[in-house]
Amino acid sequence: MQKKADSSQAAQLLRPVETQRASAAIYEQVKGLILDGQLKPGDRLPSERSLMEVMGRSRPTIREALRMLERDGFIHTVPGGSGAVVQQPSADLVVQSLDAMLQVGKVSLTELGEFRMHNDVAVARWAAQRRTQSDIDALKAILDKMEQCIQSKDWEGFLALDPEFHCQLAYAGKNTVSAIMSRVLSQLSNPISAKHILEQPGSSTEQQILNIWDMHKRIFDAVCAGYPQRAEEAMAYHIQDFVNDNK
Q1: How much is the pLDDT for 96?
Q2: CA angle centred on 30, ends 25 and 36, rounded to 5°
Q3: What's the CA gap between 207 and 105, in Å, rounded?
Q4: Phi-psi label, residue 62: left if phi above 0, alpha if psi -120 to 50, beta otherwise
Q5: Beta-carbon contacts of residue 21 (< 8 Å; ≥ 6 apart)
Q6: What is the predicted pLDDT for the residue at 103?
Q7: Could you write out the three-class secondary structure of 85-111?
Q8: What is the mean pLDDT of the segment spanning 169-182?
């Protein structure tokens, strides 16, 4: 396991800032050190006082830079601790940004569906080609939970498992970028789809749930059998169904 940097080591990586937008420059400098791996999750930043000395800036400027870093998920403060701690950037921030863009009309559901058609279909193909037995077991465990929700008519519980299925499928595809995007897109589209389904009359809600279950089963069966083309076709049908239901 790689040794974590303490606050004094982190201080050695930082440089004084000479700009009118000092807080933004500090933010970019620390963010750059995190993204290129010089500062890793778990590393502690210097205290505010130490940062003031290293960066040559006032406490308000330092605090604003730290606030920006924490807002964007790069660090988190520990109550009573001396110095913030670097954390793994989260996909939740991307979800929040895209969700805001959806709400103000900058991104349409049609555009979301178009992108998912390409991303998720590729994921299904890769999963059929690259899945391991542990991937199959994880997917089956999610489907088993979904089936239990159907039996108990727990529609909300069933729909909450939908992003888990798509994310696990992406992990089975062994493409890190696509796995991140699948998580973001599933978290973003699931509330929209779930709201639409749950607002239908009882029998219509149940029928749509059963349709989703059937589509997931078709994707799973194709992935298990190692049939990329069949997995692609099943996923394309699934995503097109989402697009049609949310027009």
Answers
A1: 60
A2: 120
A3: 30
A4: alpha
A5: none
A6: 55
A7: EECCCCCHHHHHHHHHHHHCCCCCHHH
A8: 89
* SS3 label, residue 214: helix
The residue ranking higher by pLDDT, 213 or 35, is 213
Q: Which residues contact 134 (CB under 8 A, 6 or more apart)?
A: none
Dihedral of alpha carbons 17, 21, 27, 28, sign: negative
Q: Residues 22-28: contacts with CB within 8 Å, 24+ apart?
A: 22/55, 22/57, 22/61, 22/65, 23/61, 23/62, 23/64, 23/65, 23/68, 24/65, 24/68, 26/51, 26/55, 26/57, 26/61, 26/62, 26/65, 27/65, 27/68, 27/69
By CB neighbour count within 10 A (0-12 exposed, 13-18 middle, 19+ buried), where does 229 fall?
exposed
Task: Kindly report the length of the chain.
Answer: 247
Supply the pLDDT for residue 98: 58
Tokens 């982190």 belong to residue: 10
Please answer whether residues 125 and 232 qualify as being in contact, where contact means their C-beta atoms are separated by less than 8 angstroms: yes
225-228: Cβ within 8 A, 24+ apart: 225/128, 226/128, 226/129, 226/131, 227/128, 228/124, 228/125, 228/128, 228/129
Q: What is the 3-state secondary structure (H, E, C) of 4-58?
A: CCCHHHHHHHCCCCCCCCHHHHHHHHHHHHHHCCCCCCCCECCCHHHHHHHHCCC
